[in-house]
Design brief:
By secondary structure, the chain is mainly α. It has a single domain (3-303), classed as Na+/H+ antiporter like fold (Up-down Bundle), CATH 1.20.1530. Helix content is 77%, strand content 0%. Helix 6 crosses helix 12, helix 11 (222-244) runs antiparallel to helix 12 (250-259) and helix 11 packs across helix 14 (280-303). It is globular and about 50 Å long.
């Protein structure tokens, strides 16, 4: 596992955030554009990215699904409980509390995790990651907004979210994996092309959103640095220790540790924009964790 290859990959992805920042300053992107582009990504491109994750040459093996899915679900359950306790320790602002909880739970496994895993472990790791995206997508699109707004004591759940485009795409991927169905090449390529817009699009939006955040305020936010250290180092190391004492095979362990060491999910900023929620805290956390993940992910890869 090459430290340099991983570092190069992370730098390339972070560069897209900087380009988004520049686009905003040059007036190519603004708040209204970000909101509309976020809706396009959440409703069109992200569902196709989810579908394309199980439309490669080889489908995940049925025997690989159960252990990875179980480990992923248990890990998210632990993170959910952990986030509600630790967020109260590191954040005293009830308006930002829900965003801190979201950031502690959800990492950027779709948009950064996939290309990083491909560099570190090859195509096989993508299959394992695709399995983890099943609970990830269900949880983030079903409970993401309720978690973000939970800081003020609200945790309202809308049943219509179970039929959101991303969740419907997730249901289809589950069916494809269960039936071991191979899609026609034309369909696979079309899904891949549309879905590929999601990664650069989401990172450009983060950069554009950050252009409206005072730099000194963001850099001087000590609590955000604490969250970054917990998100990028404490959580993956703690999960690694738990996986080591469990019967989970090491080939799954190394993939899961890297996935749970990802920076904050960029989809959080887009959920805020789409639902008219202040996304400043989410953008700050996404920016800082993405910045420091340029070093933390190569370090994790080196340790593994």
């Amino acid at each position: 596992m090459s430290f340099l290859d991983t570092l190069t990959q992370m730098c390339a992805l972070f560069l897209l955030v900087i380009i988004g920042y520049g686009c905003n300053k040059l007036k190519y992107m603004d708040v209204d554009f970000n909101r509309k582009f976020s809706s396009l990504i959440l409703n069109i491109t992200a569902p196709f990215l989810i579908l394309s994750s199980v439309m490669g040459e080889v489908l995940p093996k049925p025997e690989d699904i159960a252990p990875v899915l179980t480990a992923g679900l248990l890990s998210y359950a632990l993170l959910f409980v952990f986030s509600f306790f630790i967020s109260k320790v590191i954040c005293k602002d009830e308006n930002a509390l829900g965003s801190y909880r979201f950031m502690l739970i959800f990492g950027n496994i779709n948009y950064i995790g996939f290309p990083v895993l491909d560099v570190l472990f090859g195509p096989t790791a993508i299959f394992y990651a695709a399995v983890v995206t099943i609970p990830f997508n269900i949880l983030i699109f079903m409970f993401g907004v309720p978690i973000i707004t939970s800081g003020k004591g609200k945790f309202s759940f809308k049943w219509l979210t179970v039929f959101s485009p991303c969740l419907c795409a997730t249901y289809i991927t589950i069916l494809i994996v269960i039936l071991q169905s191979k899609m026609p090449k034309e369909v696979s390529e079309a899904c891949s092309l549309v879905g590929s817009m999601t990664v650069p699009g989401s990172l450009l939006i983060i950069g554009s959103t950050l252009a409206g955040v005072p730099v000194l305020k963001m850099i001087g936010n000590v609590r955000m640095y604490l969250l970054t250290a917990i998100k990028l180092l404490l959580i993956p190391v703690a999960l690694f220790c738990l996986y080591k004492i469990s019967p989970l095979d090491y080939k799954y362990t190394q993939v899961l540790v890297v996935l749970f060491g990802m920076p904050v999910a960029s989809i959080g900023t887009m959920l805020c924009l789409k639902n008219n929620i202040d996304g400043t805290t989410m953008s700050e956390g996404t920016f800082l964790t993405t910045l420091f993940s340029v070093l933390s992910i190569p370090l994790l890869a080196l340790i593994l």
